[in-house]
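Lesson 9: reading folded outputs for more than one chain in a single document. The general rule is that every protein is listed as its sequence immediately followed by its structure tokens, and records are never interleaved. Here is the first one.
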Amino acid sequence: MSFGRNPHVAKAEAEEQKALGARDAKAAELAWREAARQWDRAAARETDAKRRDEHTAKAEAARAKADAGDAEGAAEPTTPQTPSRLLN
């Protein structure tokens, strides 16, 4: 780690990548929430007001994506689908 760099930015970006590559909605939601938390930590550590505002906006966007995943997950049917090979 180099001096003067905010380590939470890299952690937040890694969590965003994890959320984009998640296999299920719950894992994506948790990754987006963790990304938001890391963006908040990055904003709290930032001394430059412009970058602090950018980090705060990214945290809010990550929370919105996590909440959007909740809405999509609630709309999915709860009954499991039977594989077609079992129907023959």
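And here is the second record, again sequence then tokens.
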Amino acid sequence: MSDLKDRVLAANTRLASVVQTVCGECQQSCCHQGTMMGLQGLRRLARGVALDPDLGCRLRAGLQERSAEVRYDLQVAEKVASLLKATTLNSDACHALPELERKVADLGRFADYLESEFPLDVAGMTPLLHYSAVRHNLLRCLRQFPGAEAALSTLSRGQGSFAFRGRKLAPPRCIFHQGRCLAEQWKPIKCASFFCTNEPNLLAHCRDAMGFDEFVLASIRVVECDFARDLLTLEGHLGQEFWEPKVIIGPTADASSHLEGLVAILQDTRPDLQVVRQAGRFMKATNEILTEVQALAAGQALVHVCQSVDGAALYELAVAMDRARGQNWHGGFVLLAEQLSVRSFLAHPLWEDQMISQPLGGLEVYYCE
């Protein structure tokens, strides 16, 4: 086992322990405040399922567990609707009863779909993105009836999602959350980059537990060389919508030959590819990277091949990719480095300034063993 692999795995374990400890204590988890999976997040997850069938099994099992809560919410909503129908026939709100029946039926159809054997690809999982809207529309309709929200909470008896937080019903947690994030390492970029600074302060605990360079190592995933080849091949076959910026490092032995093999895969699957080879270390600033990717035409991709890269440069790349996504660009950038410099000249300002977003968490960085 290589020294770098040992370091990466140890840092992975340390970061996972900190996250589990801190986020496990938090009663206002970001996953419980309406943060939801989006379409690009689904593409990331679908890639992960295609690469790892075991992930698909775990995802299916987690969604089936989650469906029990949605089904329970549906039963409570049906009881409340039945009570309202019996008691509001002569009230000013009776005109809203047909709409309420439609909204309850919408939740029923969602529950049925969640319990079905839909395919775990983008098309199959897209209806799951409607969960927050279906639930919100039901609650909006219920608010036309005095006391209806309180009845939801009372009849729920502490189960399901209908619980008050202050004066309002709490927002739902992400449909892909059931005791943990079901998307695992393929979670949406906004979630992977989020390091909360509320109490308990996740970022502060990370800084107490590790330095900058160890945090960089903790953001790297150790994979086999075949995984890197399969990943690039899969993205090429799926199309540009599924391209994700990424960094592939190593392996320690014969790195140059392996990386040239990856370049060949990219040339086969992304015909309009620009290849830039440079001696020494990759040291581009955010604006330099942005200028390069913004100059790419539609369907073009760019790959940099270099000898080494360090943590600060990876941060600059992550920031650039984050800004490029904000301009409706994604995907066509791959950095291939023979080595990782495990000591950075300086820690990145986003780390030093303790910013709530640490974009490196959302950048795919792989070390090939």
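What the second record shows: The first helix runs from residue 3 to 25.
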